[in-house]
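Narrative of activities, Objective 1.

The group set out to show that a structural description can be obtained from nothing but a protein's sequence at a throughput compatible with the screening campaign. Below is one input-output pair from the validation batch, recorded exactly as produced.
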Amino acid sequence: MEKFLQAFEKIAPYLKHPLVLIGFLLLLFSGIHICLIDSGIIPPLTQEAGSGIVYAFLKYGFVIALAVIVLGFALQFFKTHHNRPPPPS
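Output recorded for this entry:
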């Protein structure tokens, strides 16, 4: 556990940007699911159920990726628009 905390201390300064933080959380989220599948807690699925879950992962993964891209552009637009000097009068 101590090695994990030492490694996290090196990564933590990079988590200030919201998009990096979201990416890190998605990585943790998928890592937890991989561990659950490998441990055998989640039982094997039928072919039909498995295809439905894969479809749901692809659909929601696409929506999340699209939302992150749109929010990234919106964040950059806000920063650019907010730091723009006022027009001369």
